[in-house]
């Protein structure tokens, strides 16, 4: 019970006030004391040693493998809401707490199983509730120069550099905004730097602010791609922008440090070279942790789903057009197919329910839409294929339909693959290209399929007397 109280206080109070090594390991120690007692309630009687050993094995698996951490996160999310558990081998330092749990077991009073359940179930609820909230992602919001150090601060995180931004050390954990209002303009001699609104961008002036030119920037297309890379369902990423900057004079020149929110910081060294620093899992800053700005096929899952649904729609429509004669049932099938496609589109239900308070409602709605849409898509596809089989649709007609469907799906997806690689850079350009290609290719293909369709008995072929 004391360990459960430690979990509650540590996870909801101490971690927020003093995030770091001590509070992180304190939760592991307390959890390893509580877990064997709770796990033993699920096992047969007199299985306390098994529960203790199994706790250690599962803890080791979760903390040393990304697969184990992901499975644990999903299990915890089902039990207690959105949660995130990270693999961290240093947490294995808490394993000796299992010995303390076993010592407590052997030196506690013997009680009936019914009494243990009455006490243990509330403990389980408290323990799960204590660790259910995922940690907020770090964000660089302020930067200032203090006592020769460049200090970057954000929500419950701080980092400082004594060598002009080349390396960073974790701060002592003061709250964000301790330096006051974010600084958006800084000068050294006649050289000035400033950040514009709503952009990851730094402007530079060599004439004390009379004229300005871009010193560093991420284009809008790359900014959107990075925003997707940093997306977190529990902590949505707003539009990325530069929040503050600071200039520090060095013996061989000056450095510029820019706080870029969730993206970390950007640093201009004394040679004029800009580098981006991202947040590591322990909230430190490193160039190796900076988000990439391109990636083959990455972060375009919604667009690829739309491309696949476009191909499905062309497939069903093409099969119905290729069948001999006009069937009233074809209109009904197309209606059901369109309904399934609409339900499977990547809707953003979080905007309907709110990101934090009703996230589960959004997940339930999304799951319901996907199940209903999937059933309709499968049923309409099966119905269309069975009709084509009964009507003995020719192999040539079937190849034409498949060819058009594949061309449409691939053509809709291709511009977004290019956007993920940086060409075109603008997302709107990729969207327009995909739409024009999909509509043009689909319309042309369906027209050809209709013209080549076999005529119904007693009816001339389209385009023939």
UniProtKB/TrEMBL annotation:
Q: Which UniProt keywords apply?
A: Membrane, Transmembrane, Transmembrane helix
The residue ranges crossing the membrane are 304-323, 330-347, 367-389, 401-421, 427-449
- UniProt protein name: Uncharacterized protein
């Amino acid at each position: 019970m004391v360990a459960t109280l430690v979990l509650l206080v540590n996870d909801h109070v101490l971690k927020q006030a003093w995030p770091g090594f001590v509070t992180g390991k304190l939760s592991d120690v307390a959890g390893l004391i509580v877990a064997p007692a709770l796990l033993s309630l699920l096992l047969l009687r007199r299985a306390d040693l098994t529960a203790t050993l199994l706790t250690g094995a599962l803890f080791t698996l979760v903390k040393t493998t990304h697969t184990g951490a992901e499975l644990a996160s999903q299990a915890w999310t089902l039990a207690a809401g959105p949660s995130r558990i990270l693999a961290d081998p240093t947490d294995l330092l808490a394993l000796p707490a299992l010995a303390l749990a076993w010592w407590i077991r052997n030196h506690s009073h013997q009680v009936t199983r019914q009494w243990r359940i009455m006490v243990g179930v509330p403990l389980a609820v408290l323990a799960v509730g204590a660790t259910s909230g995922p940690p907020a992602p770090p964000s660089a919001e302020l930067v200032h120069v203090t006592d020769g150090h460049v200090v970057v601060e954000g929500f419950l995180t701080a980092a400082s550099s004594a060598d002009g931004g080349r390396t960073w050390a974790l701060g002592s954990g003061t709250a964000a905004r301790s330096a006051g209002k974010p600084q958006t303009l800084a000068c050294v001699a006649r050289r000035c730097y400033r950040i514009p609104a709503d952009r990851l961008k730094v402007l530079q002036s060599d004439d004390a602010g009379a004229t300005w030119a871009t010193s560093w920037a991420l284009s809008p297309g790359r900014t959107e791609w990075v925003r997707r890379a940093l997306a977190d369902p529990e902590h949505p990423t707003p539009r990325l922008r530069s929040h503050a900057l600071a200039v520090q004079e060095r013996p061989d020149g000056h450095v510029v440090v820019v706080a870029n929110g969730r993206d970390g910081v950007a640093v201009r060294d004394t040679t004029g070279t800009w580098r981006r620093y991202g947040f590591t899992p322990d909230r430190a800053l490193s160039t190796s942790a900076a988000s990439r700005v391109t990636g083959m096929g990455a972060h375009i899952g919604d667009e690829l789903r739309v491309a696949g649904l476009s191909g499905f729609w062309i497939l069903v429509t093409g099969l119905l057009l290729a069948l001999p004669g006009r069937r009233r049932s074809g209109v009904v099938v197309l209606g059901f197919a369109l309904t399934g496609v609409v339900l499977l589109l990547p809707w953003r239900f979080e905007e309907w329910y709110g990101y934090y308070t009703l996230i589960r409602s959004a997940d339930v709605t999304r799951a319901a839409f996907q199940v209903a849409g999937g059933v309709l898509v499968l049923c309409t596809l099966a119905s269309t294929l069975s009709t084509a089989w009964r009507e003995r649709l020719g192999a040539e007609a079937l190849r034409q339909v498949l060819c058009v469907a594949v061309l449409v799906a691939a053509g809709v997806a291709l511009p977004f693959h290019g956007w993920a690689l940086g060409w075109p850079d603008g997302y709107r350009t990729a969207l327009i290209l995909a739409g024009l290609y999909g509509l043009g290719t689909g319309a042309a293909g369906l027209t050809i399929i209709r013209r080549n369709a076999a005529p119904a008995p007693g009816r001339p072929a389209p385009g023939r007397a």
